[in-house]
Fold:
Amino acid sequence: MAQKQELLKASLQQHCRQEADTAALAKFLAATLWHYLVQSPQKHLNISLKGDLGAGKTTFARYLIQAMGYEGKVKSPTYTLCEPYQIELKQQEITIHHFDLYRMRDPLEWQEAGFEEHFDIPGICLIEWPEKAEGTLPAFDLQIQLTAGADENERFININALSQSGASILKEGASK
Ligand code: ADP
Ligand code: MG
Structure:
């Protein structure tokens, strides 16, 4: 029973009827990530964003990055593969690297582009289309899956923990 509860708490499902619901979920996750990183300032977290083209991966990432305190424009990293965002936490600055690997022609292009070092520093890597790297990326802590619903603005969003850190982030959020 206790174990079952643990599993249940390590995932989150949300039915978003409109974009504002997606924004609210991204803000909720941003608040728990913020809290976690303030407590563990040296941590690095890897978060994957999965779903078809137009599912809302970039939209979710944009709300998340802005809810973590970034005030500038968050553009899609479709052509650059990666965009960095400096975020002020309480005592320090961290970087969120937002990737979109859709246009990679080779699974190791992200390494050839010198992006490996982004995975070793305090902060977050948010990665759209991790499938394109065919398992060459470091392990993920959280996976966010977005699926379109019948209505144009309807989405189903599942967030799953893939590591102990990911599970404690979701549990922290659930206890609030
Ligand atoms: P992806 O990065 O998955 O290809 P985008 O985030 O670029 O998708 O595009 C999603 C589009 O769907 C945006 O134009 C966004 O405004 C729209 N949209 C409509 N409803 C929602 C919703 N509930 N959640 C996220 N995006 C939505
Ligand atoms: Mg995108």
